[in-house]
Here is the input.
Amino acid sequence: MKIVQIAAEMGPYVKVGGLGDVTSALTPALAELGHKVHFFLPFYKALEKKGAKDLGVSVSVSIRGEIKKVGLWKLMHGDVNLILLREDGYFLRPGVYGERGEDYKDNLDRFVILCRASIEGMKALELSPDIVHSHDWHAALTPVYLRTISSKDFPKAATVLTIHNLGYQGLFDAAGWPTLGLPNELFTTAIMEFYGRINLLKGGMIFSDAITVVSPTYAKEILTQESGFGLDGVLSDKKSNVHGILNGIDVNEWNPRLDTLIPAKFDVKNLQGKARCKSELQETFGLDKDPKSPVAGMITRLVKQKGVDLLAEIIDEMVSLGIQIVILGTGENEYEEIVKKKVGIHAGRVGVKIAFDNKLAHLIEAGSDMFLMPSRYEPCGLNQMMSLMYGTVPVVRRTGGLSDTIHEFDPRTKKGNGFTFDEYSPGAFIASVKRAVEIYRTPSLWKLLMKNGMTEDHSWANAAQDYVSLYSKLLKKGK
Here is the structure.
């Protein structure tokens, strides 16, 4: 199959969150299955020194009657043809979506250009795709254009839209409607109007042949009023076209046997290196060098969605249980200040770094005994799967992809790979932590639990095959 993917992020070149991780791994996995994959991405400032080559081709895009020239550049990502859309006025900036906590004011223009220039780029490069797969709201206008003003361009191509987090929908003021270049009759409550505003994701959902989300449980959750963010009705109407495909992780990057960013490598057959990683983690975060204390790690955005409010309620009790806690992340000022204050209160027991640091993230995964993910909602989550690879036992709330990947350990049957809770409350969270500590105090059981997780397969091979199966079904039924 000839597959085109379109997104605002692709790691390692430009990554803000999980979207960049997924696109970075999924596209090569599809290529490894023998498919021809092109990926369209804006040419951001971060890509200036990555060796991209100018194809000598440009396309024209109209924004409110003004013609913008967009150059096409190429970079190989494994066997994937990465096509970079170069329009320096809109994309050659330090940020992806904004800077210093503020969104760029022209983001509507920028992502209209992404979608329209991708379509024009496909035409200019004569790609004739079988599948056009768009990711999140930034690329959600692509299926809208392909079924409306660009309907003659690739009429046989099937369109797929992946929603990585329904909480982000691409909402813009109605005054921006002319920027889209779409007929006015599309700005209705039945299509792209959402409480008086433009909703790009809603439009993409309505015009796509298939919608995928990043875990089977999340596919069910978003059909409910509680988790649908106002779009549960639209999703329910298209229920037969909504598919939950669980993300994988890059098992070459997140693998303690191969990891060059950690002080000692290890694997399921020889766990000795994990002790050295734990010791260095304790030193790095200013914790007491106590090999017997369980270390609980957390790498997260410090926002309410990630359950940081629950963590703040139970940190003191966790410390009283003998647990050391390390936290890496950035987010809302309120939560940053809360966790930083806990360092002063519990010196040597709590360590916090307010930053994004990939090397530290690897050290936390490798050196922690437990990994905390008390999320209010979590479409998929990747860190719990990364943790399993490193023998770091997840403690999670059962929601979205966390529910699909982490199963309560039963000391009688010896089955399970972590500890879970359902009710979104400090009491339920601390109860699961206490169960984890109890098992930790029995080294033979804890080692068995670690190995349960380390022997699981969370690679992209399975997920990529699921996407290929979906693509094939769409093509067989003529979309």
